[in-house]
Amino acid sequence: MTTRPSTDERIARWLDAEAIEVIPDRVLERTFERTRSLRQDRSRLIALRSRRGGRALLLLAAAVAASLGISIASGALRQPTPTPRGDVLDQIVDFGRIRIVVRPDQPQFTAGNGAPTGFDTDVATALGSRIGVRAEITFIDAATMLEGSSTRWDVALPSVPSWTVTSEQFSVSKPYYFWPHRLVVAAGSSATSLADVVAGPICVVSGDAGEQWLRGAYGSTPATPVTTSILTAASDEDCLARLSSGAAVAMVTAQLSDADLQIRSDTRVIGGPAPEPRAAVVPVLSADGRTTTGLLSAINGAISAMRADGTLTGLSQNRFGGTDLSQP
Amino acid sequence: MQTELVEAARHGDHDAFEALAVSVSPRLYAVARLILRDTYLAEDAVQETLVHIWRALPSLRDAARFDGWSYRLLVNACADAGRQRRRIATELRVVTTPTTMPDPSSELADREQLERGFRLLKPEQRAAVVLHYYLGLSTREIADALGVPVGTAKSRLHYATETLRGVLDADDRGTQASAGGHAG
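Predict the joint structure of the above. Result:
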């Protein structure tokens, strides 16, 4: 049995983890630019001496006048020199960490220690490594990531279709993997292609990209609906049950992988849409007003490099039962 | 070493001041970021604090009190930065992160809850928490840094800690109830 740390310990640990004792060079550079041309305020010392010497009023007045003169001459005295906000990538490199949010559910799964892990967490770690910083991963659901009102993160890996991300608020990277949606029939079915099942009903998980395909909304441009006879369900398991009972003639998978389908003897794949591209997402502007074009460029560069040297292939095969989803 | 730099800087040696600033600024920056939860404002607060230190150093009579004195200037600069933030209405919004799979066994859950609780605190309460739990200052030293009586410093720290405890306890109860629900 483990003992929960005390509140004091939890607060102290949190602050230690949050603290960053690496100050950007520009802060000191701008500080010294100001202080080199700024005289020290010796009015109090002068006042002290003058009390001892009996010439307080005269010297104090002189000191105050001098101080005021310095204040007026130094226009930047009361306001910090604006620090150029620049690109959030500079900040990430300065801090040595990149904050990446990942959804806790598929393609992640819960490991033995209770913490989510999976393909996106692997990619997040690898992205940090390619950029040369530590990846700080936090788990939040995809809908919250893309609400747009809060961006306390640098990069999100929502694992949703790229075309569903709002372009006014977010920029989308190159896809780093392509999720397949398979059109599946019962093993005993005589259907061999989409044309054999368009009369339906075809079961699909409600709200999934598979439903968008059936309704002609898969991808960035509208298309002709595949069928009008659609049966929506809450999960792949529900659709499998309807397929088995004969309530549906086919189904489109949402989260079942090719490896999952291969070990089933009661289903057969007869088609499906082109795999769904999934990409990293960055806010158009960071929470403190920095641009993110440099960061997006670095993410794209890292994805290209990881694809070229086989890193993405290896991560995919490791997490998806030997399947390489890094290629369309 | 620091005392010598403080003494030299007090007498107008700018090189000594630069060396002193390089030495103390990382800690000041960490404290400012923790209090303000905003990188840009923290940079400004540290810049403002260092400029203030340079100007006012001649008035510091005891070089050994430099640390407490610099924290006091920093906390004031953070308060100014906080007021500026409210004025220009750029308060960062709290990320509401209803994590669908809370992980009570790690520090992830704590981080989210403490972040949320911390944002409920007033700036002076945040400062008390950071000075105590991060810098390890006693309530007397916190009082000195904040420029308030010891009783006030104690009160701020107590209230802030209780607020954070309340957030953590509520989350712990939620997690236990959730676990109980699954088991049952």
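Residues 97 and 112 of chain B are 8 Å apart (CA to CA).
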